[in-house]
From TrEMBL:
One of its GO terms (molecular function) is glycosyltransferase activity. Its EC number is 2.4.1.-. The keyword Transferase applies. Residues 57-223 form the Glycosyltransferase 2-like domain. This is Poly-beta-1 6-N-acetyl-D-glucosamine synthase. InterPro entries: Glyco_trans_2-like, Glycosyltransf_2, Nucleotide-diphossugar_trans. The chain crosses the membrane at residues 12-35.
Length: 243
Protein backbone atom coordinates (compact mmCIF):
# COMPACT_ATOMS: atom_id res chain seq x y z
CA UNK A 1 0.00 0.00 0.00
CA UNK A 2 1.50 3.29 -1.10
CA UNK A 3 1.61 6.22 1.30
CA UNK A 4 -0.09 9.44 0.29
CA UNK A 5 2.52 12.13 -0.24
CA UNK A 6 1.73 15.85 -0.35
CA UNK A 7 3.91 18.49 -1.92
CA UNK A 8 4.97 21.60 -0.02
CA UNK A 9 2.45 23.65 -2.00
CA UNK A 10 -0.38 21.25 -1.18
CA UNK A 11 0.53 21.20 2.51
CA UNK A 12 0.66 24.99 2.55
CA UNK A 13 -2.75 25.19 0.88
CA UNK A 14 -4.28 22.69 3.35
CA UNK A 15 -2.74 24.58 6.28
CA UNK A 16 -4.25 27.85 5.07
CA UNK A 17 -7.66 26.18 4.67
CA UNK A 18 -7.38 24.76 8.18
CA UNK A 19 -6.49 28.15 9.66
CA UNK A 20 -9.37 29.85 7.82
CA UNK A 21 -11.79 27.16 9.00
CA UNK A 22 -10.57 27.62 12.59
CA UNK A 23 -11.04 31.40 12.34
CA UNK A 24 -14.60 30.90 11.08
CA UNK A 25 -15.29 28.45 13.90
CA UNK A 26 -14.03 30.89 16.55
CA UNK A 27 -15.97 33.73 14.89
CA UNK A 28 -19.31 31.91 14.99
CA UNK A 29 -18.66 30.53 18.47
CA UNK A 30 -18.05 34.05 19.79
CA UNK A 31 -21.30 35.28 18.22
CA UNK A 32 -23.34 32.29 19.41
CA UNK A 33 -21.86 32.61 22.89
CA UNK A 34 -23.36 36.10 23.17
CA UNK A 35 -26.79 34.71 22.31
CA UNK A 36 -26.35 31.85 24.78
CA UNK A 37 -25.32 34.22 27.57
CA UNK A 38 -28.38 36.37 26.83
CA UNK A 39 -30.68 33.35 27.14
CA UNK A 40 -29.06 32.33 30.42
CA UNK A 41 -29.37 35.88 31.75
CA UNK A 42 -33.08 35.93 30.87
CA UNK A 43 -33.66 32.60 32.62
CA UNK A 44 -31.86 33.92 35.72
CA UNK A 45 -33.95 37.12 35.49
CA UNK A 46 -30.87 39.30 35.14
CA UNK A 47 -32.28 41.11 32.11
CA UNK A 48 -34.47 44.09 32.88
CA UNK A 49 -37.73 44.14 30.92
CA UNK A 50 -40.43 46.77 31.07
CA UNK A 51 -43.68 45.69 32.79
CA UNK A 52 -45.66 48.20 30.75
CA UNK A 53 -47.42 46.96 27.64
CA UNK A 54 -47.35 49.92 25.29
CA UNK A 55 -49.96 50.11 22.52
CA UNK A 56 -48.42 49.10 19.22
CA UNK A 57 -49.07 48.84 15.50
CA UNK A 58 -48.40 45.63 13.57
CA UNK A 59 -47.60 46.38 9.92
CA UNK A 60 -47.88 43.67 7.26
CA UNK A 61 -47.05 43.93 3.57
CA UNK A 62 -48.88 41.49 1.30
CA UNK A 63 -48.79 40.70 -2.40
CA UNK A 64 -50.76 37.81 -3.93
CA UNK A 65 -51.07 36.21 -0.48
CA UNK A 66 -54.84 35.85 -0.10
CA UNK A 67 -54.81 32.24 1.13
CA UNK A 68 -51.91 32.89 3.48
CA UNK A 69 -53.72 35.92 4.91
CA UNK A 70 -56.80 33.77 5.45
CA UNK A 71 -54.71 31.20 7.31
CA UNK A 72 -52.21 33.27 9.28
CA UNK A 73 -53.72 36.75 9.84
CA UNK A 74 -56.17 35.58 12.57
CA UNK A 75 -53.19 34.32 14.60
CA UNK A 76 -51.89 37.88 14.71
CA UNK A 77 -55.27 39.54 15.21
CA UNK A 78 -56.01 37.24 18.16
CA UNK A 79 -52.80 37.94 20.06
CA UNK A 80 -53.06 38.14 23.84
CA UNK A 81 -52.27 41.84 24.06
CA UNK A 82 -54.33 44.70 25.57
CA UNK A 83 -54.12 47.36 22.86
CA UNK A 84 -52.84 47.01 19.32
CA UNK A 85 -53.81 47.51 15.72
CA UNK A 86 -52.94 45.55 12.61
CA UNK A 87 -52.32 47.45 9.38
CA UNK A 88 -52.19 45.43 6.17
CA UNK A 89 -50.84 47.13 3.05
CA UNK A 90 -52.15 45.29 0.02
CA UNK A 91 -50.09 45.32 -3.18
CA UNK A 92 -52.62 43.46 -5.32
CA UNK A 93 -56.34 44.11 -5.71
CA UNK A 94 -57.04 41.26 -8.11
CA UNK A 95 -56.55 38.09 -6.05
CA UNK A 96 -59.47 38.35 -3.63
CA UNK A 97 -57.43 39.77 -0.76
CA UNK A 98 -59.38 43.05 -0.75
CA UNK A 99 -62.67 41.18 -0.24
CA UNK A 100 -61.09 38.97 2.43
CA UNK A 101 -59.74 41.95 4.38
CA UNK A 102 -63.14 43.66 4.16
CA UNK A 103 -64.84 40.59 5.67
CA UNK A 104 -62.20 40.20 8.39
CA UNK A 105 -62.53 43.88 9.28
CA UNK A 106 -66.11 43.19 10.44
CA UNK A 107 -64.87 40.54 12.85
CA UNK A 108 -61.71 42.35 13.96
CA UNK A 109 -62.27 46.11 14.41
CA UNK A 110 -58.57 46.65 15.17
CA UNK A 111 -57.72 45.54 11.62
CA UNK A 112 -57.02 48.31 9.11
CA UNK A 113 -55.91 47.98 5.51
CA UNK A 114 -54.91 50.10 2.57
CA UNK A 115 -53.32 49.54 -0.83
CA UNK A 116 -50.44 50.75 -2.97
CA UNK A 117 -51.66 52.78 -5.96
CA UNK A 118 -50.84 51.29 -9.35
CA UNK A 119 -49.31 54.64 -10.34
CA UNK A 120 -46.39 54.03 -7.95
CA UNK A 121 -43.49 53.10 -10.22
CA UNK A 122 -39.69 52.99 -10.14
CA UNK A 123 -39.68 52.46 -6.37
CA UNK A 124 -39.44 49.43 -4.10
CA UNK A 125 -43.09 48.66 -3.47
CA UNK A 126 -42.40 46.90 -0.17
CA UNK A 127 -40.54 49.92 1.22
CA UNK A 128 -43.35 52.18 0.01
CA UNK A 129 -45.86 49.87 1.71
CA UNK A 130 -44.00 49.94 5.03
CA UNK A 131 -43.78 53.74 4.81
CA UNK A 132 -47.53 53.99 4.19
CA UNK A 133 -48.13 51.66 7.13
CA UNK A 134 -45.93 53.76 9.41
CA UNK A 135 -47.76 56.94 8.39
CA UNK A 136 -51.15 55.31 8.94
CA UNK A 137 -50.23 53.90 12.36
CA UNK A 138 -51.71 55.37 15.53
CA UNK A 139 -49.03 54.20 17.95
CA UNK A 140 -45.35 54.87 18.60
CA UNK A 141 -44.10 51.29 18.45
CA UNK A 142 -44.20 49.62 15.03
CA UNK A 143 -43.96 45.82 14.82
CA UNK A 144 -43.29 44.21 11.44
CA UNK A 145 -44.04 40.79 10.05
CA UNK A 146 -45.09 39.29 6.71
CA UNK A 147 -48.26 37.76 5.30
CA UNK A 148 -46.80 34.26 4.94
CA UNK A 149 -45.65 34.10 8.57
CA UNK A 150 -47.35 33.19 11.80
CA UNK A 151 -46.34 33.73 15.45
CA UNK A 152 -45.14 30.80 17.53
CA UNK A 153 -47.79 31.57 20.16
CA UNK A 154 -50.40 34.15 21.14
CA UNK A 155 -47.78 35.73 23.43
CA UNK A 156 -45.62 36.98 20.55
CA UNK A 157 -46.51 40.66 20.99
CA UNK A 158 -46.01 40.45 24.75
CA UNK A 159 -42.54 38.97 24.27
CA UNK A 160 -41.65 41.72 21.82
CA UNK A 161 -43.15 44.51 23.93
CA UNK A 162 -41.28 43.58 27.11
CA UNK A 163 -38.17 44.92 25.35
CA UNK A 164 -39.71 48.36 24.74
CA UNK A 165 -37.72 50.08 27.47
CA UNK A 166 -37.10 53.82 27.61
CA UNK A 167 -33.66 53.57 25.99
CA UNK A 168 -34.64 51.04 23.32
CA UNK A 169 -35.13 52.15 19.72
CA UNK A 170 -35.11 48.86 17.77
CA UNK A 171 -36.03 45.30 18.78
CA UNK A 172 -34.79 42.38 16.67
CA UNK A 173 -36.55 39.03 16.74
CA UNK A 174 -35.82 35.57 15.36
CA UNK A 175 -37.75 33.64 12.73
CA UNK A 176 -37.47 30.17 11.28
CA UNK A 177 -38.94 28.12 8.46
CA UNK A 178 -41.66 25.53 8.96
CA UNK A 179 -40.09 22.06 8.88
CA UNK A 180 -40.02 20.21 5.58
CA UNK A 181 -38.12 16.99 4.94
CA UNK A 182 -36.21 17.93 1.81
CA UNK A 183 -32.62 19.00 1.18
CA UNK A 184 -33.39 22.41 -0.30
CA UNK A 185 -35.41 23.32 2.78
CA UNK A 186 -32.68 22.03 5.10
CA UNK A 187 -30.13 24.16 3.26
CA UNK A 188 -32.34 27.27 3.60
CA UNK A 189 -32.84 26.56 7.31
CA UNK A 190 -29.10 26.09 7.81
CA UNK A 191 -28.35 29.35 5.97
CA UNK A 192 -30.99 31.23 7.99
CA UNK A 193 -29.56 29.86 11.24
CA UNK A 194 -26.08 31.21 10.52
CA UNK A 195 -27.46 34.53 9.29
CA UNK A 196 -29.47 34.83 12.52
CA UNK A 197 -26.40 34.04 14.63
CA UNK A 198 -24.56 36.84 12.83
CA UNK A 199 -27.12 39.63 13.12
CA UNK A 200 -28.24 38.75 16.66
CA UNK A 201 -24.66 38.26 17.85
CA UNK A 202 -23.56 41.62 16.48
CA UNK A 203 -26.65 43.30 17.93
CA UNK A 204 -25.79 41.94 21.37
CA UNK A 205 -22.27 43.34 20.84
CA UNK A 206 -23.87 46.77 20.31
CA UNK A 207 -23.08 46.65 16.58
CA UNK A 208 -26.45 45.97 14.92
CA UNK A 209 -26.44 45.96 11.12
CA UNK A 210 -29.66 44.22 10.04
CA UNK A 211 -32.80 42.45 11.14
CA UNK A 212 -35.48 40.16 9.74
CA UNK A 213 -38.62 41.83 8.41
CA UNK A 214 -40.67 38.88 9.61
CA UNK A 215 -40.03 39.73 13.25
CA UNK A 216 -38.74 43.14 14.25
CA UNK A 217 -39.92 46.41 15.77
CA UNK A 218 -38.81 50.02 16.03
CA UNK A 219 -40.09 53.40 17.10
CA UNK A 220 -42.17 55.45 14.70
CA UNK A 221 -40.27 58.57 15.77
CA UNK A 222 -36.95 56.94 14.84
CA UNK A 223 -38.25 55.88 11.43
CA UNK A 224 -39.27 59.40 10.43
CA UNK A 225 -36.27 61.02 12.11
CA UNK A 226 -34.07 58.92 9.79
CA UNK A 227 -36.41 59.82 6.89
CA UNK A 228 -37.35 56.18 6.53
CA UNK A 229 -36.27 54.60 3.25
CA UNK A 230 -36.17 57.86 1.29
CA UNK A 231 -32.46 57.65 0.42
CA UNK A 232 -32.81 54.21 -1.19
CA UNK A 233 -36.49 53.87 -2.04
CA UNK A 234 -35.51 52.94 -5.59
CA UNK A 235 -33.53 49.86 -4.47
CA UNK A 236 -35.54 46.63 -4.38
CA UNK A 237 -33.66 45.21 -1.39
CA UNK A 238 -32.84 46.60 2.01
CA UNK A 239 -36.22 46.91 3.73
CA UNK A 240 -34.74 44.90 6.62
CA UNK A 241 -31.22 46.29 6.81
CA UNK A 242 -31.03 49.75 5.19
CA UNK A 243 -32.39 52.38 7.53
Amino acid sequence: MEAIVFSVLELTFLSILGILWLIQLIYYFALYNRIHKRRVAIKKRKVRFTPELFPLSVIIYTRDDCEKLRKFLPMILEQDYPEFEVIVINDSLENGSEELLSLMKKQYPHLHYTFIPTSARYVCRKKLALTLGAKASNYEWLVFTEADCYPASNKWLRLMARNFTVDTQIVLGYSNFQYKNDWSHKYKTFDLLFMSIRYLGFALANKPYMGIGRNMAYRKELFFKQKGFSSHLNLNGGADDLF
